[in-house]
Design a protein that fits this description.
It is a single chain. The chain is mainly beta and 98 residues long. The protein has one domain. It is built from one helix and seven strands. The strands form two sheets. Strands 1, 2, 3, 4 and 7 form a five-stranded mixed β-sheet that branches. A two-stranded antiparallel sheet has the order 5-6. β1 and β2 form a beta hairpin. The longest helix has 12 residues. The model has no long low-confidence stretch (mean pLDDT 94).
Length: 98
C-alpha cells in the first residue's frame, strides 16, 4: 500500500514539545523558522540530535504539513502515512536583553 511520506522535526525544552511537519525532506534551519513563525518570536537552539523514529500508521486527526511551495496543507483523517523523524532539537526562548 502506498503511504504519504511526512518528514518532521521535534523541538523540545523543559516545558514544551513541538513538531514541525513537511511533505518533503527539509533541514533544521527551515523547520526552526517555521517554529519561530508559529510561536511569534525567535528561539535559541542549544543542541540538535539525529532522530531515527519511523512509523507507518493512518492519521487519527487532521495534520498540518508545509509543502515545497511553503504553503500549509491539511492531511485528512485516515490517510495512510509514513512518519519519518529527521531531528530532535533542544531549544529555548531568546531574551530581549541578549
Amino acid at each position: 500500500m502506498e503511504r504519504f511520506k511526512i518528514y518532521y522535526h521535534v523541538f523540545e525544552n523543559e516545558a514544551e514539545s513541538y513538531k514541525v511537519y513537511f511533505s518533503y525532506e527539509e533541514g533544521v534551519k527551515k523547520a526552526t523558522k517555521h517554529l519561530e513563525k508559529s510561536l511569534g518570536g525567535e528561539v535559541h537552539i542549544y543542541d540538535i540530535f539525529p532522530n531515527f523514529d519511523h512509523e507507518n500508521k493512518p492519521l487519527t486527526s487532521p495534520l498540518s504539513v508545509i509543502t515545497k511551495s511553503q504553503q500549509e496543507m491539511f492531511l485528512p483523517v485516515g490517510l495512510e502515512a509514513e512518519l519519518i523523524a529527521c531531528s530532535f532539537v533542544l531549544f529555548g526562548y531568546k531574551n530581549d536583553d541578549s
